[in-house]
Specification:
Number of domains: 2
CATH superfamily of the largest domain: Methylmalonyl-CoA mutase
CATH class of the largest domain: Alpha Beta
Helix content: 40-55%
CATH architecture of the largest domain: Alpha-Beta Barrel
Number of helices: 16
Low-confidence stretches: none
Structural class: alpha/beta
CATH topology of the largest domain: TIM Barrel
């Protein structure tokens, strides 16, 4: 490298800036800065003069997960079997009722199954654990349920009592708490908010249960569309969670699941969703997540179908096997831009985390609806940007095909107003394009 560049004089960042300002011919240099929702300005160039390396974590090898919901047990089993036979490393079932366990798990490798429970039934979950021989992953998140629905399963005390029973039932190294960080991203949280809420959410479990639970937690993130920030997000999270573990004086594996956010997915021009998910999954794999799944391009308006599920899985297979992302190790080490924003993201996320802890922790802030207010602020800011065309979704608010008629809408694709009383304001998922889609559908005579 020395001989390669010996004929070139080193150029300082000051000289680069002077050259840029000269080429701008009087225009303001500040116009080249990109302002983000995280209050991190992206500069037009980064230089060794201001380079601060961020502590990197090796990528590892992300495992491919396909997702499904248990409605009909036999159909769920058939879909899982097909997915695992055709390239998925794991199959993840979500469920919100007691189901016939043997029908779902028959002829499946238990160690390739993940169950995400939206019920807190100790007897049933213990039975599921036993019938899968302790090999399947079973994940619960009562705090996430409270965040998302505004109510506990029963009440706070009873829910944590139930969780303690499971804690005593499962082996000491069994990771049964799956923190739903995706709730916050899908409702509109920024990257720094996501990280802070993930940390504080996890600390709440440690404080409510005990320190041993630190090694029994997994994290479920949604992947946003800001490619480089998302790569940095996963690296930064490992770093920050390790800082907290060090403070508690415990060692724990850090396990991260990720799948694309629904926030930027659309009903119109829905094939573009494949481009969005492709970029998002790339950032997750390069960011070093342990488990990565995909969203079918039509998942916001169509029932599960073989065509889009196969494409979703094959997108991941192409990225890992044909694009060789599985071999990408420490992919941004030494990259001035990524390491610079990683440091800034870490600082800002830690600042938000500290504010939450000063306010008596995550649950206290949820009860006061401070978390909900902060997410709503960020979500409204992004929504205003979308409505004004500053935040672009091709096919929705830019380059619109006015003659397009969407495919048959099989499931309700918009935010539902919930009835009934809640203890706190729920944190609900909402896509950016919903209002504009409703107007376009109404014009086509399609009403809900």
């Amino acid at each position: 490298m020395t001989s390669l560049f010996q004929d070139f004089k080193p150029v300082s960042s000051k000289e680069w800036k002077q050259k840029i300002q000269f080429d701008l011919k009087g225009a303001d240099y500040q116009t080249l800065l990109t302002h983000t929702i995280e209050k991190i300005d992206i500069k037009p160039f980064y230089h060794l003069d201001s380079y601060h390396p961020f502590e990197n974590v090796d990528n590892g090898n992300s495992k491919i997960v396909q997702f499904g919901r248990i409605n009909d047990e036999n159909i769920a089993n058939k879909i899982a079997k097909n997915a695992l036979n055709k390239g998925a490393d794991y199959y993840s079932f979500s469920f919100d009722r007691v189901f016939h366990i043997e029908s779902v798990i028959q002829n499946l490798d238990f160690d390739k199954l993940i169950f995400k429970s939206n019920i807190l039934d100790v007897d049933f979950i213990s039975e599921l654990y036993g019938k899968t021989l302790g090999e399947a992953q079973i994940l619960l998140d009562p705090i996430g349920h409270f965040s998302h629905y505004g109510n506990w399963y029963t009440n706070e005390k009873t829910d944590f009592d139930q969780l303690k029973k499971l804690q005593n039932t499962f082996p000491a190294d069994y990771k049964f708490i799956g923190i739903g960080v995706d709730i916050y991203k899908n409702a509109g949280a920024s990257v720094t908010q996501e990280l802070a809420y993930a940390l504080s959410h996890a600390v709440e479990y440690i404080e409510k249960l005990d320190i041993s639970v630190a090694n029994r937690i997994q994290f479920n993130f949604a992947i946003g569309n800001h490619y480089f920030f998302e790569i940095a997000k996963f690296k930064v999270f490992r770093y920050l969670w390790q800082l907290i573990l060090d403070e508690y004086g415990v060692n724990a594996d850090i396990v991260i699941h990720a799948q694309p956010s629904i926030r930027n997915k659309t009903v119109f021009d829905s094939y573009i969703n494949m481009l969005r998910t492709g970029i998002e999954m790339m950032s997750a794999i390069l960011g070093g997540v342990d488990f990565v799944g995909n969203l079918p391009f039509d998942s916001v308006y169509k029932k599960t179908n073989e065509f889009s599920e196969r494409i979703a899985k094959n997108q991941l297979l192409v990225l890992k096997e044909e694009a060789y992302l599985k071999k990408a190790s420490n992919s941004f080490e030494g990259t001035y831009y990524l390491e610079n924003i990683s440091g800034q993201i870490a600082e800002k996320a830690l600042e938000i985390f500290k504010q939450i802890e000063k306010g008596n922790g995550f649950l206290a802030q949820l009860y006061k609806e401070k978390i909900q207010e902060k997410i709503a602020e960020t979500a409204n800011h992004t929504q205003n940007g979308f409505d004004k065309g500053k935040v672009v979704l091709v096919g929705s608010n830019k380059y619109i095909n006015e003659s397009e008629k969407p495919e048959k809408i099989e499931i309700y694709p918009f935010l539902r107003k919930r009835s009934g009383q809640t203890l706190v304001r729920p944190i609900v998922s909402k896509r950016l394009a919903e209002e504009i889609e409703i107007k376009r559908l109404n014009k086509l005579g399609i009403k809900f």
